[in-house]
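Example 4.3 (complexes with small molecules)
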Amino acid sequence: MNRPAEKVPHTITGLLQSGTRTIGDASDAPDVDARILLQTLLKKDHAWLIAHGTESVDAAHVTRYYQWIERRARSKPLAYITGRKAFWTMELAVTRDVLVPRPETELLVERALGKIPLSEPLHILDLGTGSGAIGLAIAAERPLCKVTATDCSWPTLKIAEQNKGRLGLRNIDFQQGNWYGPLEQNRFSVIVCNPPYVPHSYYEATLSHEPRDALFSGERGLDALETVINGAGGHLEPGGWLLVEHGFDHKPSVQVLFQAAGYKSITTLDDHAGHPRVTEGRRADKA
Ligand SMILES: C[S@@+](CC[C@H](N)C(=O)[O-])C[C@H]1O[C@@H](n2cnc3c(N)ncnc32)[C@H](O)[C@@H]1O
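Answer. The structure with S-adenosylmethionine bound is encoded below.
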């Protein structure tokens, strides 16, 4: 590990350069990561760092900065170091108990909002809510709606509740349990779900920091998707929509699952990287 030498100048510019070198290959954008860590630590924005590049930083902050830099150099996700992640229009608290919300999941939010008119007080379900990302975004954008969000993990739901409190939202409630288990006979107009969909055998160093139950599901990554798609019919209003996020190579299998479950208007949308990422379908009008 490239530890900071005594002689490294503890100016803002010096810290950014040294931090960038230390993170190195552990990140695609080590300069951005070093800057975000220093900004978070000093509670300043990007423009302030540029304007004050020659100023010195006090010893306590320098020590803390290099502790954070070293964690990032060991591939720890930036969001777990800062404890924050931007998602949709919100800043969410995140800890190791929740998956770090991904930008591609915003596509799921966007598609779901397209099916929820602003003026209608619909009941929406977010399955496997994690930090609350999807459910909170929908609750914020559709204040007349009631959102129910579930997860199997209590520690995860604690973070989601914290985020609800910080955002001051009242139209979302969290329930603990296995997929549709806690919902009894409740029916929803729209069900959204970003389930675990990574195949068990897949390995990537960066993923080792996140909760396994949030990521992995079966040999092909399809077990949770199958449960969610097959169970949705019993909880959707006639004409209601199911939208799921899935792996880039899951489109054919997920479309077959939607067809077999009797959905209409089945469509798969690509994420910003051009990968098939979200599939949606509509329950037939009559039950
Ligand atoms: C991929 S993460 C998605 C988290 C969040 N919705 C997001 O998009 O950032 C999947 C979530 O499903 C939850 N989960 C996994 N298995 C579950 C189950 N059997 N029942 C309910 N939730 C489950 C995990 O705890 C995790 O929070």
